[in-house]
User: Fold this.
Amino acid sequence: MKALIVPDNRGKSGKVTTEMVLQIIEKAKRHRALGKRIRIKQFAAGLKNENITLSAKKVEEVLIANDLYKAWTRKKRPAFYQSLCRKIPNGLVSLDGSEMIVWLGDTPYRFNVELAVDVVTFAHTAFGIADAETADQVIKVLESHRKNWGVPVGVLHDHGSANISAEARRYLLQLGIESVPAGPGNPKGNGTDEGAFSQMKKVLGKIRIDVSSPRALARSVLNALVSVYVHMRNHLPVKKNNLDPTEHMAMPVSGELRNLERQQLKRHVAKRIPDGESQEKLDRLHWVIRHHGLDVSPDVLKRAQRSINAYDLKTIGETETAFIKAINRKSERRNLSYFFGILKNIQQQHDDEAKQQYCRERYNYEVMLELKRRESEQPAPLSIDNVVAMLEKAVTVKVRFVKELAIRKAREWSQQLMESYRYRGSFKNKVEDALGNVKHLSIEQKQTAWELFCQFLNNKNVESSVTLSS
Assistant:
């Protein structure tokens, strides 16, 4: 078999000119006149036969700018969660519970095994067995860890009622242990304990004792099995580490490193606190739920709170108005799913409009013709007033391509005028006075314009020095 050679055209496409845009527009109009649908990749490949080598993305932007293709943007995706960094042994302890079943004959006995695992060393430091996950069991496991290994810096746990109970929080506060809740929807949040339980259940398998005995016997058997597993696991190094978990846990750690670990955990927890804009979005969501009396379960509310941050405040406000109109027509639309459906559609519309406006500013044929006409006009005699006028446009105009053109002209004229002055200081003083006499610019805008002007002269010096040295 012969390898398929795909030509690499990266970096070979030149600047998009007015003639190119006109050719693309005429070809697209002929294509649509035949009743054909424009498929961007095929259309861009066909343009190569007419000596127009542009990427499919660039061709799409040209068509959008001239109203020959509909703008479309991809939907926003949820935020990416990073795993929590850990550096020292007995710094962060992962705490979690899992159900395990012991069969005595045909009768299953269910227990909750609470396990503490050091995140860095993967040492299984303590465990407890009870009928259910309770605050007392959580405290008992942490106390066992403290007696054997000392007080950890922080405890990583989920949002279970036992872990966030008042008793557990009071215990952590008394010992100065940082509480680090695992983030919702984060697969890397509390994976240490989950991995430990997975390995434990894989090793132990299904526990079945084919004798008739009381519940205490089942509990003692499970306790012995878990003890054996923890003892053996703590003598197996993790990955390429030469130390086994027990030796790693016994290594001394300075107080400075513990303080660094504590500050890092505090910063991690502080990032979960919503900022002003996020809090305003949550307030708007809660207002919609209360005002319209929406029946929302706790799980649905959590998903709504996570999703609302992906949308703009302006979009949320327009959605509230549209939602009121919709439920006035049909009362059965009064639910959170319908609200988020409207929200998603309006946000998509705003994103598409923003992309279309961006393409029009860059590749609209009429705009490019006007820009080309202005550039081809005979330039006025260079003067300091011309430079100041261009600097004024550079700091006041919001359209990006006009701003770029103003900066380019101001740089070019500043460097040309500088050549006619014997001393740079006199030229800078005149420009500074001219900028100060412009009344309709704010102090910040004048400062920005002055910094731009100074950059132009510095760049000129750099170019001159390089030319002379070469």
Observations:
- Residues 276-346 form one domain.
